């Protein structure tokens, strides 16, 4: 909702300015896929077409990972909460979180959400150049 409204407003206010999406990591990939899906549902047909046709390029930076696994999700979550480096977290701390996240990631709702995001990227994403950036730190 609000992100699509912001993009639409910026495109209307700045018609000569190209629109680029800089998508960072798996979270950005999921967010952009959600936006592509929502853009496809905009009722104003001209606005919907403009939102996607006006995109000049997409930059995918450090992601996405092919699948979000419980070990990676647990390390990311615990690292974000503690401020510690993901590689330095003790197994005794990550194992219970991995088990919990593993169960959650296997739920029907999570599988359907993953399918929705991938479908949006394959069938609704703007047809424009894409640049992929990776570093040695990417998984």
The tally of helices reads: 6
Cα shape: elongated
CA radius of gyration is 18 Å
The beta-strand count equals 3
**Quaternary arrangement of the chains shown?**
single chain
Q: Give the overall pLDDT as a whole number.
A: 86
SSE string, helix = H, strand = E? HEHHEHHHE
Q: Helical residue percent? A: 55-70%
Residue fraction in strands? 5-15%
Fold blueprint:
Elements: H1 2-13, E1 19-24, H2 25-39, H3 45-53, E2 55-61, H4 70-82, H5 91-105, H6 108-123, E3 130-133
Parallel strand pairs: 1-2, 2-3
What does this structure look like?
This protein has 139 residues and is α/β, with parallel strands linked by helices. It contains six helices and three strands. The chain has helices spanning 2-13, 25-39, 45-53, 70-82, 91-105, 108-123; strands at 19-24, 55-61, 130-133. Helix 2 (25-39) packs across helix 6.
Descriptive terms for the model:
139 residues; alpha/beta; three-stranded parallel beta sheet; elongated
Quick overview of this protein structure:
It is built from six helices and three strands. The chain is an alpha/beta fold.
